[in-house]
Design the sequence.
């Protein structure tokens, strides 16, 4: 791998490396690599290699899960090769991406070195707004785009890729409605590319208030509300999710419409109507995947029941 790094960066030597994190379930690692003779002092290397044995943190060690992860790294490779350069929202610049034997290596810009060195576990509204603006720009960048080489339907919780979690779901009404919820989202007229894992932990903040995002394993086609609902659920407890709902949607669409050449009120109405559907879709997954998860709350339960009743009507 060292030869691969030096060949593509044309750096003189690798000074040192540091483990940023191991990939989910032992599928590799993300490294920061300091270089001598390269335009930036460091780069980030995502090194994907198959584990000798699967070790899922929540015990979901299945062939379906294994194949989903393999596909996710193929998708991320395709994203950096063919789509990343067209994003109006800030993402890491890709230096090189390739297969090295049975392994995949992605060399990318070190966002920390570029000023996006802050990570947040708690956020102010200003920081939330910056992330919402990022999502709006990202979705506007790829409106109507064919997700060739990506997930046909983006997000890591997409129903077709999560049969085991659906089987484990003990909410009979939600389980029965899962396919209809999925179809409602998939049948929307206006589609874009969704990030697919737009949680707070995947946003990088600068000291000047700008944000960038990482981790594009589950990028694919779909309604932008999937990302928005998932993001909001990752940084607020239920009281604020409910209290700020109107403000969240107003903020998102003000940024989204500003990115378009001309306003699209039909898209806005369609997506506004799908915000709760997207929320219910993720609630279906999390309730089957981890029944005791903190994101399962009265707000999500109420939204899911309302969506189910609307679909029945």
Sequence:
């Amino acid at each position: 791998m060292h030869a691969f790094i030096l060949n593509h960066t044309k750096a003189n030597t690798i000074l040192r490396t540091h483990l940023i994190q191991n990939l989910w379930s032992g599928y590799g690692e993300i490294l920061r690599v300091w270089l001598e003779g390269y335009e930036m002092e460091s780069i980030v290397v995502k090194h994907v290699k198959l584990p000798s044995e699967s070790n899922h943190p929540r015990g979901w060690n299945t062939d379906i899960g294994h194949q989903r992860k393999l596909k996710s790294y193929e998708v991320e490779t395709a994203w950096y090769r063919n789509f990343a350069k067209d994003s109006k929202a800030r993402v890491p610049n890709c230096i090189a991406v390739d297969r090295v034997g049975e392994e995949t290596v992605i060399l990318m810009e070190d966002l920390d070195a570029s000023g996006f060195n802050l990570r947040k576990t708690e956020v102010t509204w200003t920081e939330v707004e910056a992330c919402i603006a990022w999502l709006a720009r990202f979705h506007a960048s790829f409106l109507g785009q064919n997700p060739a080489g990506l997930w046909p339907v983006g997000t890591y919780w997409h129903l077709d890729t999560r049969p085991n979690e659906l089987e484990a779901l003990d909410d009979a009404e939600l389980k029965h409605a899962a396919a209809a919820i999925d179809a409602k989202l998939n049948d929307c007229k206006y589609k874009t590319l969704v990030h697919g894992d737009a949680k707070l932990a995947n946003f990088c903040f600068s000291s000047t208030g700008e944000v960038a995002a990482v981790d594009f394993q589950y990028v694919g086609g779909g309604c932008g509300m999937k990302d928005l609902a998932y993001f909001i659920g990752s940084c607020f407890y239920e009281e604020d999710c409910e209290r700020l709902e109107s403000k969240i949607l107003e903020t998102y669409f003000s940024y989204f419409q500003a990115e378009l050449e001309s306003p699209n009120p039909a898209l806005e109405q369609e997506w506004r109507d799908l915000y709760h559907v997207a929320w219910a879709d993720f609630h279906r997954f999390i309730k089957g995947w981890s029944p005791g998860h903190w994101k399962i709350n009265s707000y999500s339960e109420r939204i899911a029941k309302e969506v189910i009743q609307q679909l029945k009507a």
Q: What stands out?
A: The radius of gyration is 20 Å. The domain at 125-312 is CATH 3.90.1200.10 (Aminoglycoside 3'-phosphotransferase; Chain: A, domain 2).
